[in-house]
Design a protein that fits this description.
With about 160 residues, this protein is an alpha+beta fold. About 35% of the residues lie in helices and about 15% in strands. It contains 6 helices and 5 strands.
C-alpha cells in the first residue's frame, strides 16, 4: 500500500506492507533517533510527534500515519538544543539511549505548557524509562532550563 506523510517538514511517499510499524518506517527513512526499547509501549524510546502530539511509534501501524505530519528528533534539532545541555549538566544522560524520548516529550510538554510545575513535568514524562539515572536529573535539567529562560525574560516560542 502507498502512504504519504510529511516527515520532518518534507513530503514522503512510499510503498509499505500493511503490517509495517511506524517505528520501522521512520528508521528506514533515516530517523535513527526513534529507538526500539520495550516494544510494549512502556518505555517512551520510540516517541515521535504526529500532528504535534506525542505518540509511541512502536505500537502504531505506519498506514495510520498516512496524510499526517510526523516529526522526529531529527526535525527538532534547533528547538531541542535549547535545553538538552541543561539535562546533560545534571548528569542525566549517562548512556543517552533514553534521551530522544525524553527530549520529544519535553518539547511537547513545553509547547503545551510553557511554565509547568515539577509535578506537571513528572506526570508528562512518566512514560519514559531511564535505566541509568532515574528521573531526578532530567527533572532538575528541565527546571534549570525553565528558570534560566524565565530569568532572561523569554518564554518558550518567543
Amino acid at each position: 500500500m502507498e502512504i504519504k506523510i510529511i516527515l520532518n517538514g518534507k513530503s514522503v511517499t512510499d510503498l509499505i506492507d500493511a503490517d509495517t510499524l511506524l517505528i520501522d518506517f521512520l528508521r528506514s527513512h533515516g530517523c535513527y533517533s526513534v529507538k526500539r526499547g520495550c516494544e510494549t509501549s512502556n518505555c517512551g524510546l520510540c516517541t515521535v510527534l504526529m500532528d504535534d502530539v506525542p505518540i509511541l511509534s512502536c505500537s502504531m501501524l505506519a498506514a495510520r500515519a498516512d496524510g499526517h505530519n510526523i516529526t522526529t528528533l531529527e526535525g527538532l534539532q534547533e528547538e531541542a538544543s535549547e535545553f538538552v545541555g541543561f539535562i546533560a549538566d545534571q548528569g542525566a544522560d549517562q548512556c543517552g539511549f533514553c534521551n530522544p524520548g525524553f527530549v520529544m516529550n519535553t518539547i511537547a510538554l513545553l509547547r503545551e505548557n510553557p511554565d509547568p510545575t515539577d509535578d506537571e513535568i513528572r506526570a508528562y514524562l512518566a512514560g519514559n524509562l531511564c535505566r541509568c539515572s532515574g528521573y531526578d536529573g532530567q527533572l532538575r535539567g528541565i527546571r534549570n532550563f525553565l528558570d534560566s529562560r524565565n530569568k532572561n525574560g523569554g518564554t518558550h516560542g518567543e
